[in-house]
Automatic annotation (TrEMBL):
Residues at which Mg(2+) binds: N209, D223
Stated name of the protein: Succinate--CoA ligase [ADP-forming] subunit beta
UniProt entry tagged with the keyword Phosphoprotein: no
Function: Succinyl-CoA synthetase functions in the citric acid cycle (TCA), coupling the hydrolysis of succinyl-CoA to the synthesis of either ATP or GTP and thus represents the only step of substrate-level phosphorylation in the TCA. The beta subunit provides nucleotide specificity of the enzyme and binds the substrate succinate, while the binding sites for coenzyme A and phosphate are found in the alpha subunit.
Reactions performed catalytically: (S)-malate + ATP + CoA = (S)-malyl-CoA + ADP + phosphate; GTP + succinate + CoA = succinyl-CoA + GDP + phosphate; succinate + ATP + CoA = succinyl-CoA + ADP + phosphate
Lineage: Bacteria, Pseudomonadati, Pseudomonadota, Alphaproteobacteria, Hyphomicrobiales
Any GO BP: tricarboxylic acid cycle
Underlying gene: sucC
Pathway connected to this protein: One-carbon metabolism; formaldehyde assimilation via serine pathway; Carbohydrate metabolism; tricarboxylic acid cycle; succinate from succinyl-CoA (ligase route): step 1/1
Amino acid sequence: MNIHEYQAKQVLKGFGAPVAAGVAIMKANEAEKAAKSLPGPLYVVKSQIHAGGRGKGRFKELGADAKGGVRLAKSVDDVVANVKEMLGNTLVTKQTGPDGKQVNRLYIEDGADIDRELYLSILVDRTVGRIAFVVSTEGGMDIEAVAEETPEKIVTVAIDPEAGVTAADVAKLNDALKLSGDAAKDGAGLFPILYKAFTEKDMSLLEVNPLIVMENGRLRVLDAKVSFDNNALFRHPDIMELRDTTEEDEKEIEASKYDLAYVALDGNIGCMVNGAGLAMATMDIIKLYGAEPANFLDVGGGASKEKVTAAFKIITADPNVKGILVNIFGGIMRCDVIAEGVVAAVKEVGLKVPLVVRLEGTNVELGKKIINESGLNVIAADDLDDAAKKIVAAVKD
């Protein structure tokens, strides 16, 4: 689960991280009061959407010459003018896609005198099986570009879970970020704080870009992006309250109600599969034969008829879907349950696009019998390769 920047900063502030004063608003008439509550005279007006690249983004409604989604303001009147221009409009960034996202919240923050911009993130490094810091002196930039062009400027420091962030770890991080004096002292306090926040709140990603060294030599968290492990949210009702469903795909919200692993994509072939590995293989083979998957959808190993029906409805609700591939290898999952769910869903919502079904495993003959006797216009497939070829051909016809 993702949260907004201002929410992430409040979470980090609760652990003691240094962040600037700021006020989140949802209405333009709140801007003047919010700005006047801050020290000034420099302010930053930030679009709050679940996507990166806001500063370089552009508002659809304002033309190519308009300023981006993060703006400096040098007076309260300037803040108000920017808020009126930004709030309610659609911001397009590299991460939103061409459709962009409507800006329904803004964060008005006290400005900072910046000396240097640094990059810091914490994530689970699966190559070593530990939580790790990833840092760079090249903050404020696309870290992907830094990794590609100057990988030597990125340093990874894995943390021993039993020891936590040690003095040796702090020294490595300070050295990698070229921190000295007060900034190094701040780093010695900040790095353990961020690690504690990451572990105690079950985060999957904590990214600070930029982490700044101010002109007075102190560190500040200038931006923050935080994602949480969905499987651990039951332990954090306070974090659940921060969820903004307006930033999520409606189909993904519906899928979460049925405990379905669903991610909307940009293609036109809907996929319903059991098992994450098989789902990814199914998506890969669709691309191999020249088409694009419309979603990742794993119904899981113990799906009920109702769960499968819900999954099928979610797929067919996507207007981009021009064909559907059901690929089930029944181990724990029974093929007859999948078949019953598909039949029930089709009878309820109808079938307006080609449907290819590949079943194998537990109760496969019963599953095939249910589908064959349903009267549905289903294209049967012998294996995954055959299924992919057939659904791609059906969509292209």
